[in-house]
UniProtKB/TrEMBL annotation:
Annotated source species: Pseudolysinimonas yzui
Domain of life: Bacteria
Signal sequence, renumbered to the chain: 1-26
Protein name, entry field: Uncharacterized protein
Chain segments carrying region Disordered: 23-44
Lineage of producing organism: Bacteria, Bacillati, Actinomycetota, Actinomycetes, Micrococcales
Length: 269
């Protein structure tokens, strides 16, 4: 168990427990699922396990995994999805300013206010653990924009947005706010997910829950014609916190996309 949650003050009390969602080995028929009753419940000696991730009070979701580069170097992947904020609170000011600057001519502060945007901060980190992690390896950071919701994506420091489409509704021009973000090499960055009408409830959903209609994590499959990076994902685990459940992560479409090509979870499909 590699993800731990802190207590949520005020709204939810008590520690939040891990929901381990990594690939599991099927148990032989008739054996107990209780780790204490399973002789080989601990990882094989020498096996890689993700680094521990402690989730803050405002976390909706946490995700960890291990990346392996073509040269054999390994790195830890960590993603924290923070609770969605209404655009008018001071804590959302960086996201509002970044969106107005990057989306000039598309979305400005009057649009953000008039359409009742919320902003969900998504922190992504790739930390080398063994070997030299290549600087030229790029990975797609999720979420991407959801055109049905009119959501926007703006990369904060550490991430780079590319002029490629992740949805076929776009032709020759991809609006800045719809351009996906990538992480080049190792490092860390924050993605700002803006969702119009989410304060009142976007597309007839409950308030502050439309974040759950997106996927979160990373994948080696790059957008548009950029191809794929030769990175292998393994040992993916995720935790939806009680706060995440309270704010929407219980929808029928919620699913894990854990494979050698990516490590993500959400309700985009």
């Amino acid at each position: 168990m590699r993800i731990r949650s802190l207590a949520v003050t005020g709204l939810l009390a008590g520690a939040l427990l891990l929901t381990g969602c990594g690939p599991a080995t099927p148990e032989p028929s008739g054996t107990s699922s209780d780790p204490a009753a399973t002789p080989d419940a601990t990882p094989t000696e020498g096996a890689l396990v993700p680094a521990e991730l402690v989730l803050p009070d405002d976390a909706l979701l946490g995700l960890v995994g291990i990346l392996t580069a073509p040269n054999g170097a390994t790195a830890d992947l960590a993603v924290i999805v923070h609770a969605s904020l209404p655009h008018m609170v001071p804590e959302a000011a960086d996201a509002v300013a970044a969106t107005a600057a990057w989306c000039a001519g598309e979305v400005d502060e009057s649009v953000i206010s008039g359409r009742g945007f919320t902003f969900t901060f998504v922190d992504v980190t790739v930390t080398p653990r063994d070997g030299d992690w290549p600087d030229d390896l790029s990975l797609l950071v999720l979420p991407v924009a959801n055109p049905e919701l009119g959501s926007t994506i703006v990369a904060g420091a550490g991430l780079r947005q590319v002029e490629e489409a992740t949805d076929e509704v776009f032709a020759d021009y991809v609006p800045h706010c719809q351009q996906p973000a990538v992480l080049d090499g190792a490092g860390a960055g924050t993605l700002y997910l803006g969702i119009p009408q989410d304060i009142a409830g976007a597309n007839d959903n409950a308030s502050f829950t439309a974040w759950a209609l997106h996927d979160f994590g990373m994948t080696a499959v790059l957008p548009g014609d950029l191809g794929a990076s030769d990175v292998e994902f393994s040992m993916c685990e995720s935790e939806v916190t009680l706060l995440g459940e309270e704010f929407g992560a219980v929808i029928e479409s919620w699913a894990e996309g854990f494979s050698s090509a990516g490590c993500f979870v959400g309700g985009a499909s």
